[in-house]
Design goal:
Layout (H helix, E strand, L loop, with lengths): L3 H8 L22 E6 L3 E7 H4 L3 E5 L2 E6 L8 H5 L5 E9 L2 E8 L4 E7 L2 E7 L7 H5 L5 E9 L2 E7 L6 E6 L2 E6 L4 E3 L11 E7 L2 E7 L6 E6 L2 E6 L10 E4 L7 E4 L3 E8 L6 E7 L10 E2 L4 E3 L1 E3 L1 E4 L6 E5 L2 E5 L43 H20 L8 H12 L3 H14 L7 H13 L3 H8 L8 H13 L3 H10 L1 H4 L4 H17 L3 H12 L5 H17 L3 H12 L4 H18 L4 H12 L6 H16 L3 H9 L11 H16 L9 H10 L8 H16 L3 H14 L3 H17 L3 H10 L7 H17 L3 H8 L5 H13 L3 H12 L11 H16 L3 H11 L9 H7 L14 H6 L2 H17 L12
Parallel strand pairs: 9-13
Antiparallel strand pairs: 1-2, 2-8, 3-4, 4-6, 5-6, 7-8, 9-10, 10-17, 11-12, 11-24, 12-15, 14-15, 16-17, 18-19, 19-27, 20-21, 21-25, 22-23, 23-25, 26-27
Helix pairs in contact: 5-6, 6-7, 6-8, 7-8, 8-9, 8-10, 9-10, 10-11, 10-13, 11-13, 13-14, 13-15, 14-15, 15-16, 15-17, 16-17, 17-18, 17-19, 18-19, 19-20, 19-21, 20-21, 23-24, 23-35, 24-25, 25-26, 25-27, 26-27, 27-28, 27-29, 28-29, 29-30, 30-31, 31-32, 31-35
Length: 941
């Protein structure tokens, strides 16, 4: 390392001047692009650091400040976007050639300054333009802390008079002493000649820390003490005794280090301006406490400190978390530490005790050997030794555990998983740190896999303690295969290939079969064939051979040899072991259906029985999926959904569970979005929907399902049920235009049910600013119709205004009719008919009602000319009309004048325009929801 004074002189630096910020608080070293944000009362500072971030370029374009970052991967600026700094209106990112640009749009009157220092590009943002220059603003701090020095040629004491108590860290690093405080301030340092043996002192301020680097010869001792809120750091003199900080493994056995340091406040990452490396200081409140040792691991070094904690690391992902009296040092994959058993006292378990295996998760065939004494005697002898060792250990976490491990090995080798788990858990109960022991994790994981607790075993084998163990990789592959995660199984088996042949024969056969199954599912048929041959060569027990034969039958299926596959499945299905007979019977059903030798109803009965014979793994999922698809093919929709839903949340952990959920979603979509349920009675479709409504997809498709179902209910006049469906959508699922559209349909259904008040509420509660013009016209007409039904005729006409759409004219005519304003009502009804008289086809019921009202209106308003015109145009339609008599009277223009309203009472009653409007609304709903297409065939639900 260069002498600090020489380096300072070479750089042309001024002693005792505040440096630009070196770093700021972080939980880990810099990423390639590190964006750091801090603020005080005057400005907000953004720093771009890291290998890529430090090369950022800043330019100004009007109110936009543009930072170009040399990476096409956009950095995480979510905090800036959600909560822009003061003086910034908005923050955006945009992709440019060869990089990404961060655009900050300044508010009116705001300003920005930029520069680079200490390996970072900085940007200062001001809500109002600053009066001072950027250099002065840079070093502005929350306050000034006076620093006094008492010096002799061999010693100097620096006192920092903080107004309130602060946390500190004081330590030596090479030729420099570092003093770090956990609050931002400006240090009022003494002049150079007052610092005794110190040759240089420089400080740097971050958003919430300040660090002072003091150049001092290596031979000088360092101490720190506090009195009240004043910290005194002494360099030189007699070295003091340091204590109060201890560092050890985590009690839970995880590969992390935990420092016990009372009053720890925060971890601050710093950059040495001369060396260029980064290190961390962990500050703590008074009284003084330090770490006396120098400890090194592969991942980090702990430096001796006068107060606090100092950490050096070559790792880029070391995390330091200060929490109360504990400081945790960790990495995402765990620190590389010696096993907990290395700290145990040495002990021998006996000359003939099962020996430790080469790998933590490896089972040795010799572990199960009992010799001439037999199983019972050997088990008792090993158990007695383990009990004696456990009683002698008491609460001593460093007591030996070899006898208990020997017993656990014997139990695992003998296939006694439950008993082995109990022994291993008792070791952890007496010494919690042993949970990080690789052999304990390996043995317990194997024992749990023996008894079928695959999720618990997976937890043991996922521990960092056995991450590099090839035998553990084999177990991970075996577990993944049982769960249907074929890709992970193949990868894990490949990673543990060097350890497979060291397992006992029966386990080699099981692993070979499981690996073959994974290869089969991934399409590697040659690999599966070779792995099956390996499994058969192990002379394994019958149950394991049957498992391999089951996979062989599946291989025959895939290579186009169904007869051979069926023969093997049939042979295996006779075995008294459900673990192999159930998958075999499933294969028989599958092949028999494909050949046509088994009817669908018989296959369904067989599969229903298999559902309950074997549960909890991928076999159950396969049976359920086959059954669901069979029911769907038969049109038994309720049975299909019930079967698929029967997988339940307990199987969600398995890989095939996602396919079951996909089948459920696809079946529900086919029924209620693609018309599959159109062949059901509307009430049956409604019941099916309600029973499985949790399958309704989120978003537009789910909303469309509800609208289609409500339309079917409207078709059969189940208006209350239809309105309830749409009301839930409007109130809970929709916003904006979509909400307005569905609320419009809801209002129409309410009006069909003669409920004008809820119709008005639906329209008013879904108002929004921008709607399509046709939708606005439809909503105005419905609102006016509701007001008309409430007797508020003038208000209804006011809502319609000058709207000339057919819907509005229909309602306006209804209002005039109810007001007995016959002439305009008759004119509108005739206008709605238009040139209908030119089409010789018979009139619809709605058209007849309009024609009758037009004729009656002209008669009551004493307009014979209009009545004559109407009669002349529509007289040919009378003969084929539904209401022939009423239409004849309405169009009769030969009667003497002076007809009274009472004369037309019964005639007007026969002209029910409401029924015509209802029919038109139903037809419109069919068109909107695709109900005008042919229904899909279906069997009753």
């Amino acid at each position: 390392m260069l002498k600090t004074s020489v380096a300072a002189a070479a750089a042309g630096a001024v002693l005792f001047a505040p440096l630009t910020p070196l770093a700021q608080e972080s939980s880990a070293p810099l990423d390639p692009i590190a964006i750091r944000i801090g603020s005080n009362a005057e400005f907000t500072r953004i720093e771009f650091a890291g290998v890529i971030g430090a090369r950022s370029q800043v330019r100004r374009d009007g109110r936009n400040v543009i930072v170009r970052i040399g990476s096409t991967a956009a950095p995480d600026v979510s905090r800036l976007k959600v909560d822009p700094p003061r003086g910034v209106d908005k923050v955006e990112t945009r992709a440019v050639r060869g990089g990404t640009e961060l655009v900050l749009t300044l508010a009116e009157g705001a300003d920005a300054r930029s520069g680079s220092a200490d390996g970072a590009v900085w940007l200062n943002l001001y809500e109002t333009a600053p009066a001072a220059g950027p250099a002065e603003t840079q070093t502005a701090a929350a306050g000034t802390v006076p620093v006094t020095a008492v010096a002799t040629p061999a010693q100097v004491s620096l006192s920092f008079a903080w107004p309130t108590p602060v946390g500190a860290a004081v330590f030596r690093r090479g030729e420099a002493v570092w003093v770090v405080f956990d609050k931002n301030a400006r240090l009022d340092m003494p002049v150079a000649g007052q610092l005794g043996p110190v040759t240089d002192a420089r400080w740097t301020a971050g958003p919430d820390h300040i660090a002072l680097r003091i150049a001092a010869p290596e031979g000088l001792a360092v101490s720190a003490a506090a009195q009240g809120s004043t910290w005194t750091v002494t360099i030189g003199g007699q070295p003091p005794a340091v204590e109060g900080v201890s560092v050890d493994r985590d009690d839970d056995g995880e590969p992390v280090l935990v420092a016990r340091m009372a009053g720890a406040t925060r971890a601050v990452w710093l950059t040495d301006p001369l060396v260029g490396d980064r290190f961390a200081a962990v500050t703590a409140l008074a009284p003084g406490k330090g770490f006396a040792d120098r400890r090194r691991t592969i991942d980090l070094s702990l430096l001796p400190t006068a107060h606090g904690l100092a950490v050096e690391t070559p790792a880029s992902d070391l995390a330091i978390q200060a929490d109360g009296d504990l400081v945790t040092l960790s990495r995402p994959g765990g620190l590389t530490l010696s096993p907990p058993s290395a700290a145990l006292e040495a002990a021998a378990a006996g000359g003939d005790a099962p020996r430790r295996a080469k790998h933590p998760a490896l089972i040795l065939a010799e572990w199960a050997e009992v010799g001439e004494e037999g199983f019972t005697a050997r088990h008792r002898r090993l158990q007695d030794a383990a009990v004696k060792e456990s009683m002698a250990a008491g609460d001593d976490p460093r007591a030996p555990a070899e006898a208990r491990f020997a017993l656990a090995r014997f139990l695992v080798g003998s296939g006694l998983g439950y008993e082995a788990i109990g022994v291993l858990n008792s070791i952890v109960a007496q010494a919690p740190s042993m949970v990080g022991e690789p052999e304990l994790r390996g043995l317990r994981g194997a024992a749990r896999a023996l008894i079928g607790r695959m999720e618990e075993a997976q937890g043991d084998f996922a521990s960092a303690a056995v991450a590099a163990d090839p035998a553990s990789a084999v177990w991970r592959g075996y577990i993944a295969s049982t769960q249907g995660d074929w890709e992970s199984a193949r990868q894990a088996f490949d990673a543990g290939a060097t350890a497979v042949d060291e397992f006992p024969a029966e386990w080699r056969a099981r692993f070979g079969a499981a690996h073959a199954m994974a290869a089969l599912e991934l399409g590697d048929l040659d690999g599966a064939r070779a792995l099956l041959a390996y499994s058969f060569s192990q002379n394994a027990p019958a149950a394991d051979q049957l498992t391999a034969r089951l996979i062989q039958a599946r291989l025959f299926e895939l290579v186009g040899q169904p007869e051979r596959a069926l023969a093997v499945y049939t042979a295996i299905s006779r075995a008294p072991l459900d673990a192999v007979s159930v998958p075999a019977k499933l294969g028989i059903v599958r092949l028999s259906l494909a050949k046509g030798t088994m009817k669908a109803d018989a296959a369904a009965r067989e599969l229903e029985g298999l559902r309950w014979r074997w549960r909890g793994d991928a076999t159950e999922l396969a049976v359920i999926r086959q059954l669901g698809q069979l029911y769907l093919s038969q049109g038994l929709y309720r049975e299909a959904l019930t079967a698929l839903k029967g997988a339940g949340p307990n199987l969600n952990r398995l890989e095939g569970a996602a396919e079951i959920q996909a089948d459920l979603g696809a079946a529900f979509r086919m029924l209620f979005l693609e018309g599959g349920a159109d062949g059901l009675q509307p009430v049956q479709a409604l019941g099916l929907f309600y029973d499985f409504r949790e399958l309704t997809p989120i978003g537009a498709d789910g909303d469309e399902m509800v609208r289609r179902l409500s339309r079917r209910l409207v078709d059969v006049d189940l208006l209350d049920q239809a309105s309830e469906l749409l009301k839930y959508q409007v109130e809970n699922r929709l916003e904006g235009v979509a909400k307005a559209q569905v609320a419009t349909d809801l209002a129409a259904i309410y009006l069909m049910d003669r409920q004008p008040e809820p119709a008005l509420q639906a329209i008013w509660a879904s108002r929004t600013t921008i709607l399509p013009a046709p939708l606005n016209a439809e909503r105005r007409a419905l609102e006016a119709r509701a007001l008309m039904d409430l007797g508020r005729f003038d208000h209804a006409l006011e809502v319609l205004g000058d709207d000339a759409s057919p819907e509005a004219r229909e309602v306006r005519a209804e209002v005039f009719w109810k007001q007995r304003n016959w002439a305009p009502a008759a004119a509108i009804y005739e206008g709605l008919l238009g040139d209908r008289f030119r089409n010789p086809a018979a009139l619809s019921a709605g058209e007849e009602a309009r024609l009758i009202r037009a004729g009656v209106g002209y008669s009551l308003s004493d307009d014979p000319a209009a009545l004559a015109r109407l009669s002349r145009n529509y007289q040919p339609f009378v003969a084929g009309a539904r209401a022939k008599t009423a239409l004849t009277i309405a169009l009769d223009n030969d009667a003497d004048g002076g007809a009274l309203p009472g004369d037309f009472t019964s005639l007007a009653a026969s002209a029910d325009t409401f029924a015509g409007w209802v029919a038109a609304v139903k037809a419109e709903l069919r068109t909107k929801t695709g109900g005008n297409r042919p229904a899909a065939p279906a069997r009753p639900a």
